[in-house]
Automatic annotation (TrEMBL):
Listed SUPFAM superfamilies: Nudix (SSF55811)
A Pfam short name: NUDIX
Biased segments, Basic and acidic residues type: 125-134
Protein name according to UniProt: Nudix hydrolase domain-containing protein
Keywords: Hydrolase, Magnesium, Manganese, Metal-binding
Entry coiled-coil feature ranges: none
Organism lineage: Eukaryota, Viridiplantae, Streptophyta, Embryophyta, Tracheophyta
Length: 270
């Protein structure tokens, strides 16, 4: 069992030297500054200093200046967990869920475990691990958090922070899906999200800007097929690019979004 130091200075154990090396690699990643929604002044300072906003459905941070009205861009915060482990064939895999068909939003879609931040959450890591525990029964003690990525924006203007963790004992994790939220728990190879295989793309437009929406089809060992697209696909493209230290083998065509002067519930990205 390989050991390392956590982001907070504590000792962590990893199942293999490969995962230890990956954890050390990822721990050096420094995302753009993020702030708490509770501190509007700090957030305004960061956004004005960088002159950037995050972009929609899994694209990386947009280069679009928002100096015209930065104080009006205040999306709610959420976090998702990118939980990685080594598969039996030695490949690096990520835990995914298929949302319940009874959910009011994104029903039946594939997603990463996660959800909206709650008042008691001290940071994005706690939001992601708490939600993963509630949704699929993943004990936070089984996950070694190694880094967080830059925020992304969902089509409903929810700011989503991806948190990357490594499962320290895959045999100890027995998925127990919350039937109200999750129909299935499965895993897929992370590398597929930077390969140009089983992938389709669709050109879309929002507020006059065109971009590409990527969709991946994955067939599990039990022959079940899953469609992974939108925010989830975009986050996993970014995570895979970072883990494997190479860009995807396809054109991403990230949009340069121009946010409306006033963002309200009727403003969604389609």
């Amino acid at each position: 069992m390989a050991s390392s130091r956590s982001l907070n200075g504590g000792s962590l154990s990893f199942p293999s030297q490969r995962l230890l090396a990956l954890a050390q690699q990822l721990s050096h990643y420094k995302p753009p500054p993020c702030s708490s929604d509770a501190d509007d002044n700090e957030e305004r300072t960061i956004e004005e200093a960088t002159g950037k906003v995050v972009s929609q459905v899994g694209f990386q941070e947009s280069a679009t200046p928002i100096a015209q009205n930065p104080e009006r861009f205040r999306p709610r915060r959420a976090a998702v967990l990118i939980c990685l482990f080594e598969g039996d064939a030695g490949d690096l895999r990520v835990i995914l869920t298929k949302r319940s068909s009874r959910m009011s939003t994104h029903s039946g879609e594939v997603s990463l475990p996660g959800g909206k931040a709650e008042e008691g959450d001290k940071d994005d890591t706690e939001t992601a691990t708490r939600e993963a525990h509630e949704e699929i029964g993943l004990d936070p003690s089984l996950v070694n958090i190694v880094t967080v990525l830059e925020p992304f924006l969902s089509k409903h203007l929810l700011r989503v922070v991806p948190v990357i963790g490594i499962l320290n004992d895959k045999k100890a994790f027995e998925p127990t899906p919350n039937a109200d939220e999750v129909d299935e728990v499965f895993n897929a190879p992370l590398e597929m999200f930077i390969k140009d295989e089983n992938r389709t793309e669709e050109e879309r437009e929002w507020m006059g800007e065109k971009y590409l929406m990527h969709t991946f089809e994955y067939e599990a060992e039990n022959k079940k097929k899953y469609i992974i697209w939108g925010l989830t696909a975009g986050v996993l493209i970014r995570a895979a690019s970072l883990v494997y230290q190479r860009p995807p083998a396809f054109l991403e065509q990230n949009p340069k979004f121009k946010f409306p002067k006033v963002v309200d519930k009727s403003t969604v990205m389609r």
